[in-house]
Design brief:
Blueprint: E1 4-8, H1 12-23, E2 27-31, H2 35-54, H3 60-69, E3 70-73, E4 84-87, H4 93-104, E5 112-115, H5 122-126, E6 135-140, E7 149-154, H6 160-172, E8 176-179, H7 188-191, H8 193-204, H9 210-219, H10 227-234, H11 236-249, H12 260-267, H13 295-318, H14 324-334, H15 341-348, H16 350-364, H17 373-381
Parallel strand pairs: 1-2, 1-4, 2-3, 4-5, 5-6, 7-8
Antiparallel strand pairs: 6-7
Amino acid sequence: MSKIIGVIGAGTMGSGIAQVAAQCGHSVYLMDANIEQLERAKNGVSTSLEKLVEKGKFTVEQKSSIESNIHYVGQLEGLSTCQLIIEAIVEKMEVKHSVFFSLEKIVSDDCILASNTSSLSIASIGSSLTKADRVIGIHFFNPATIMPLVEIIPAVQTSEATINEAVSLIQSWGKTVVLCKDTPGFIVNRVARPFYGEALRIYEEGLADFATIDWAMTHFGGFKMGPFTLMDYIGNDVNYAVTESVFQAFYYDPRFKPSFTQKRHSEAGFYGRKTGRGFYQYAEGTETIEATKDEIIGKIIFERILVMLINEAADAVFMQVASVKDVDLAMTKGVNYPKGLLAWADELGLDWVLDKLNELFDEYGEDRYRPNALLKRMVKKGDKFYS
């Protein structure tokens, strides 16, 4: 029996989640207080499905059926019959508290209440509920209709029944599910921070420009986008806000220290593609910046960013945020990394990774570069992440 699904927030992410659930045969109630936004969401879903019809994924009849599964409502009361509700609204804790507090008065006692937050505490969100054992994080990646990964994050209050039901349901939607601890940034937004942060640091040191750093990561690492191209795609305002949130939530650990370069770009309104200018300029007729394709410099850049990523992935395992398998799955399925970072570490040799990190730590003397204890222990024992 298909469940009745509610989604709060008809933005890009909310409407994408609603479409995914509707494609799987669920009756979906998409709620937004902004009626114009609901209309935009309706048109967006229709356009998305039309493209899938053109590609032969759905028939015209199936498109019509999926569209009829989605009901657009302007008030929370319209979600009263839902059995699972996923909130996908602004990343402000006070707003989420208010929504969840109001929701609990409307829905049944066994309705699961989930948040699509990318970095906020699920336990804190659940604190606004009387029956907090039904709160859980269900974090999709953008675009939700395409990206296979979903992070599921139980809070300390979450019951086993809620976890099992959420995992089973999201897997039935054809998604790759990873379970992770309720810590800042979960898996992806925590482990990926050095991809941006170390690239920005390398630029600020004057080692290379944006284009050269991007070239190094795509040429040597096989990444689909370099860090600056990706930050422009995500939006510097969004990416910087996540970095600052993770930095503060980790009690200002220097590993997550934000960059003034990105802060100034964000303050200037240079958000990236959506504003026509970010680290690159996107206006028609703008001259393309060419990378300096120096193999020696490129390899130094790539190796430095890669070992920092591996160090962060190892820390996520060390602190039991997620398993080795789930960390690697999250990075390959959530942000399209060419390889799982821990499998990559095994391939390169953990002793090589540790040597590179020790070189950085010795050179800079900053905690940012401290090698993770798990890596040290594994090298000492001659262990690998995968046997």
